[in-house]
Structure formats: C-alpha cells, structure tokens
Amino acid sequence: MAIVQMDKFMIVSHRGEAARLLESLQQAGICQILNADAAEISKQMKDLERGGGKPKDIEEVLGRLARGIGFLKPYSKSAGGLSAILAPRAVVDKQTYEQVTTDEAILKVAEECSQTQSAIEKLKSEIDNRNVRLEELKPWEGLDVVIEELGQLKQARCWVGFVPSQRFEQLEQDLTQAGAVIQSIGETGTRNTCVIVAIKDVEEQAGKLLRSVEFEQAKFSGITGTVIEAMSEIRGKLEKAEGELAGHRAEAQSLAKYFLKLEILYDHYSNLLNREQTEKSAPATQQTVILEGWVRRRDFSRLEKIVGLFSASSLHKIKPAKEEEIPVEIENANAIKPFEVITRLYGMPKHFNIDPTMFFAPFFTVFFALCLADAGYGILMVLIAGWMIKKMQGDKKLLWMLVICGVSTTVFGAMTGGWFGDVIQQFVPSLKMFREKLMVFDPLENPIPFLLLSIGMGYFQINIGIIIAFVHNLKRRDFIAAACDQLTWLVMLNSLVLFGCGKFGLINSHIGGIFGKIAILPAVGILLFSQRQGSMGARLGMGFYNVFSTIFFLGDVLSYLRLMALGMVGAGLAMAVNVIAKLALKVPYGIGIVLMILILVGGHLFNLAMSALGAFVHTLRLQFVEFFPKFIVGGGRAFEPLTKQYKHIYIAGDEKTILKD
Questions:
Q1: 294 closest CA partner among 602, 4, 90
Q2: How many Cα atoms sit within 13 Å of 103 on the Cβ side?
Q3: Regarding beta strands 649-651 and 90-92, do their DSSP bridges make them parallel or antiparallel, or are they unpaired?
Q4: What is the domain range of residue 394?
Q5: Among candidate residues 34, 646, 7, 643, the one with its CA nearest the CA of residue 319
Q6: If DSSP codes are grouped into helix, strand and coil, which group holds residue 327?
Q7: Rounded to a whole number, what is the largest CA-CA distance in the chain?
Q8: Which H or E run includes 55?
C-alpha cells in the first residue's frame, strides 16, 4: 500500500497524572514518545529539565527477578525441544496476570531464590574444594606418619613429594652415595610418591639432586595428624556439605512452582520500567511533563480521546521542524503484508520515499519459485510452514511468506516437470502422463526457455524499478529529476535493446536502426544533465561516467541468470538422490527398501533445506542489489510506539501482546 502518514503531537501533563496517562498510552500502543534529546521543544526551550533520575528501584527488582528466573529454570517443568523453540512463552490468561502482578508476596520468593542460590553455590564450591583436596592427598594414603612431625627433625631434613618414575632408580643411587635415604610410598601416573631424608651435612647436595630430577614438593598445608586421619575428616565434612546441598536443592525444587509467576512479574516490571524511563527522559518543568512524539494520522482521534480522560493534560497537534526526521511505518494488504519482513530486513525507506513491499512481493514470489523449481518441494514447504504457523507464537509473517512462495514453487515446478526431481520417472512411471500434461517445458532437456525467462524477468524488474522512481518524482513534482534521472534511462535502455534485436534479426533491421539513433538523444541528456551540481567540468565528467555505466545495467540483467542456475542445480541434486535410492533398492533381504526410504527422505529434506536457503538468499540479493537502488532512499527510522512488550509470557486473547526477543 504505502508509507503510513504521521502526525506530530505534544501533550502537556501535570506531574501528578503523567504516570497514569503514560500507562494508558502504553496500553493503547499507538504513539512514539521522544526523549529530551530528540524533542524539538528541548531545543527551543533550553531551560527545560528531564522528568527525573533513573528508576533504580525498579531496575533492582528486575535484576532480582531475572536472577530468580535463571536459578529456577533448571528445576521448572517448562517444555523443551522443538515446542520450546516455536512457543517459548507461557500462555496465561488476563485474570492470572492480574492476580500475580498484585501479589506482593511473589517478590519475597525472588529474595528466597537469591538466598538459596547463594547457599547452593557456596556449598558446591566447598564440595569441589574438598574433592580436590582428597585427590591431592590420595597418593599419600600409604604415608603412615604424623604430618607435622616431618618438619620437626633437628639433625636432618625431610622432603615429601613426587619424582618422575623413569628417574627414580638413578636418583635413589645418587642419594645413597651422597648419604641420604629415599623411600617410595607408591606410584601415581608417571610419578613416584617419595619421602627423602638427609642429615644436615648432606642437605645441600641432596637438594641439588632433587632439583635436577624436577622434584615436586607435596602440599600438606592445613593438615594435622596422619594423611588417613585428614582424609577421613575431609570425607566427613564432604558428606555433611552434600547433605546440606541436597536440602537446598529440595528447597529450590519447591520454589520452582513459582517459576511462571516470576516470569509474569518480570514482564510486568519490564513494562513498568519502560514507562518510567519514558517519563523520566521526557522534557519537563517543575509542575509538568511534556510528551512530544508521533502518532499515525488515523490514530490521532483515538489519542485525543485517551488524553481527554485526564483533566490536567492537554493535547496539541504541532508541525514537524523543517529538517526533522519523521518515523516510518509501512502498511500493506494482507496478501502483501508477509513480505514486509524483507523490507524491514533491508531497512525502512525515508518518510518521503516509497514503500517497496507491494512492488517486489510478486517478483520475490516468482523468483523464489524459479530457484526452487520443484512441485514436490513446494508442497512439502507449504505443509511444514503451515504446521509451524499453528505451533508458533508471535509474528508469523516470515512463515506466511514461505507458504506463498511454496505455492508459487508448486505451480512453477509442475510447469517444468519437477516432482522431487525425477521421482515420477524413476519410481512411479504410471504418473508420467499426469506430469506431462502439466509440464510446459523441461529445463533439463531444453534450458533455453528457462534462460530467456530468467533474463526477461530481470530486465522487466529493472525497468519497473526505474518506472517507479519516475512516477514518484512526477507525484512530487520533481519534473527535472523524473526527466533526467529516469526517463532518459528508460528511453535509452529500451532503444538499445530494440537496436540489438534489429541486429540479430528479431525485428526489422530498419526499425532497429531507428531505435539506435533514438538512443543518442537520451545519452546526450544523461551526459549533460544527470549530474546537476558542481562545476561544468565535474558535471560533464560525472555525466560521461553515467553514460559509461550503461554497461552496468547489462551486468544487472545477467545477474538474474542465477535464477536458472539455482533451479538447475537443485533439480540435478534431487535426481542424484533418486538414482542413489534406486541403487540402494537392489540390496537384498528387505534391507534395500529401508535404505531407499532413508535415502529418499533424508536426501530430499537436505536438498529442500539447502535449495530453499539458496533461493531465499539469492532472491533477496536480487531485490537488495538490483531492484531497490533504482527507486529507494534507505535509512528511514522505524516507528516505535510505546507499548507493552513480553519476553516470557503470552497473554491469551490479547492481540496487542508484543513478544520481545
């Protein structure tokens, strides 16, 4: 349809009722409120202040709720798998929502979650540390001496530690010769656990020998008594900590029944925070809050009714500033609306420009079908997307677009005889007559029609893009731009095409020659007037470049050959899957049938996924690179009304519920 018309407004509200007014505006979800930095009133009246500071109390509550939700999620019985991906938000009714948001006791649950989580984390850390300590002491279970006595020798020095096993024997000999004693306690991995004792006279020499074999001192800090006694004490403390941990986990399990209520409360406070931030970031005086913003023109009367309910608030329609950027909202008929996904992916057009959705939607549908070019895949895509529409929450525009593209793929696939590749010829020859009746041409036997169709569609779309810009400039009464930037190209490009047709004998050569001469006039116009700013030399230089860029249009048209290439590749891969499946059927003892089914199902699902992805990406590229630049000025700012958004829940029956990613 078009870009929605916007009106700018200003609401002056007494501070005492500004919060309630914003709540009503948020509930309606029809207007975008500007902060003090963006509002024009702030630029005109420098002495205005902001509505207030940050709502830290609400942010703190949200933080506690978020931590509580994250803590309880592993203990909750929330759905998993595919259903969690398609419908991640819990569905609640309005009555439940109201009950939870007015129950102050739920906030105490968040505090309990925080305490339980801290206790669990502390115990888990303690258990991990004690397990590590047990692992460290385990090699020394055979050391049957009191640990603290090892450091109390008066006439000797004692070392307890690890020696590499391959160097133990040599070390034992060297220490014996030096007058020291080494005793192996056991082995752990590639090392020996040892006790070395040397009298004071040979302590220094023994130390050098130990360093030469990369001796590693054992760690007994905090250990009293024997190693066995210490390990027994640690195991006792470990058992106690594990018992306490189990108790706290049981507490968490009992708190999990409040999981949904915490999610409801989180979304409630998120919306409250959004509202508070809007109020506190708006320009204000000591007694009033000034709400400046945008509303759809058709919703202005509704905005008047909402503001009229508040006695200390007034609404005024104001004119936008001269260079002010107007937010953009697009609106299309139901059949076209799913394709708005592509427009928003590209970026909103400027407010004075054109909504491209209705223009590219038919092309996107046809191009996708040309890339996929298989009726079986089209039917399968419709079924999968239709099932996901029933199961999925939130915005389903992309899925509906895939349904439309699936239908067009089915039609074009039937016209080219593609039914899961050549599955009819390979496995169901009785349906050959049905296939041939629907088939217009077979691209694998005669690819020329497919090639001409791809190029023809590309040339047609590029001309449509130029015509759209031409008509738009005429409507804006920018006749110079319409004549110099679009009409000249339309005449020259089509004249050159007809001239070429005359050269190749497709039309009368005399008529082709006439069009060749006609092309000179718009070429001169492009040379002289396509660049209308700067010095004469710069204008002529840019004009010459623009004339030369005619060759780029040829590149744009040839880019559409990817439609044929993708269609042929997908069909070839589908045929390969069928051939492999038919070969697998020859495996005896019934195994061949199972293999054939697995290959057919797996192979065609894989080919569908890859071909559909390729069709989407390359069709998208043709719109963004070849079509949109002909008439769109991008970089528009999307209209973002103040509305209620939900991350965790979906309110049943509330059409205004916006799901936040």
A1: 4
A2: 16
A3: parallel
A4: 337-476+564-630
A5: 7
A6: coil
A7: 121
A8: none
Q: Are 504 and 556 in contact (CB under 8 A)?
A: no
What's the confidence (pLDDT) of residue 661? 47
Q: Are 389 and 332 in contact (CB under 8 A)?
A: no
One domain, residues 468 and 596:
yes
* C-alpha to C-alpha distance for 32 and 639, rounded to whole angstroms: 7
Tokens, residue 176: 């014996």
Residue at 104 is within a domain:
no
Both tokens of 222, joined, read 């905090």
Instruction: Tell me how far apart the alpha carbons of residues 2 and 353 are, in angstroms, rounded to a whole number.
Output: 9
Which contiguous run of DSSP H or E holds residue 551? helix 550-558
Count CB atoms within 10 A of the CB of residue 201: 11
Q: With the C-alpha atoms ordered 465, 470, 471, 476, is the resulting torsion angle positive or negative?
A: positive
Cα separation, 81 vs 391, in Å, equals: 13
Q: Rounded CA gap, 465 and 343, in Å?
A: 15
Strand 191-199 relative to strand 288-296, pairing: unpaired
In a shared domain, residues 289 and 341: no
Distance CA 216, CA 138 (A): 16
Mean per-residue pLDDT for 50-64? Answer: 79
Whole-angstrom distance between the N-terminal and C-terminal Cα of the chain? Answer: 28
- CA distances (Å), 509 to each of 513, 522, 567, 612, 625, in order? 6, 21, 35, 43, 34
DSSP state for residue 324 in the 8-state scheme: P
- Rounded to whole angstroms, how far apart are CA atoms 419 and 433? 13
pLDDT, one tens digit per residue, over 440-473 is 998 988 899 999 999 999 999 999 999 999 999 9
The Cα 136–Cα 220 span in angstroms is 9
Predicted TM-score (pTM) of the model is: 0.82
Supply 192's token pair.
Answer: 């020996």
The token pair at 432 is 């050959």
Taking only the tens place, the pLDDT of each residue in 75-118 is 887 655 666 666 678 888 888 888 988 888 888 899 999 999 99
Coil, strand, or helix at residue 444?
coil
- Residue 388 clears pLDDT 70, i.e. is over it: yes
Number of domains in the chain: 3
Taking residues 616-624, report their average pLDDT. 95
What is the number of alpha carbons within 13 Å of residue 385 lying toward its C-beta?
22
Residue 150: helix, strand or coil by DSSP? Answer: helix
The answer to whether residues 54 and 291 touch, using CB atoms and an 8 Å cutoff, is no
How far is the C-alpha of 418 from the C-alpha of 409, rounded, in Å? Answer: 10
Question: If DSSP codes are grouped into helix, strand and coil, which group holds residue 219?
Answer: coil
Distance CA 598, CA 301 (A): 61
Q: In the numeric block, which tokens belong to residue 640?
A: 């973002």
Q: Is residue 653 part of a domain?
A: no
Does residue 164 share a domain with residue 24?
Answer: no
Same structural domain, 461 and 576 = yes
Is residue 156 located within the same domain as residue 216?
yes
Going by DSSP bridges, is the β-strand pair 31-33/288-296 parallel, antiparallel, or unpaired?
Answer: antiparallel
Judged by DSSP in three states, 47 sits in: coil
Chain-centroid distance of CA 218 in Å reads 51
Does one domain contain both 445 and 585? yes
